[in-house]
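Continuing the batch. This is chain 6 of the set; chains 1 through 5 are on the previous pages. Same settings as before, nothing changed between runs. Recording input and output for traceability.
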Amino acid sequence: MTKIESSPNREKTESPTPGALGRLLELMGRRIGTQRLDRLWIFPPLVRGRKEWGLVAASCSTDDPELREVITGSFVAELTGQGITFQPELATEGSAPPDRLPRIMDGVVRRSELPLDAAREVELGGDGEAFQALIQEYQTDEDSEAP
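Output for chain 6:
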């Protein structure tokens, strides 16, 4: 079953690079494997002018059911005179028991020097269809028409 929680209402800033968060999610699904994606924390992107930064933390299943591997995906995207640049990065952060991860993600927001809002938490449980539905939420019309 898919559980989705949204962050509190906050004034939305128009993205200069629509679809960048969807591209990051697609990359994470390909590299990590959707069957391993247990839960995601999608932080609202930060926007300054024509540049956007995004962060997604993933709780991934491991051989040990008592632990989850934490992998983060981040991107920097910028609208330039020649189109949109997109620079993603994935990093393994470590592992922790699954019940501790929500507190860890709350701590990321509290300790950050950046103006982060609370993350949107999405429980996937390795469900590839739920992951595809999530990606569609973040795609733009241009993304869906791309070859």
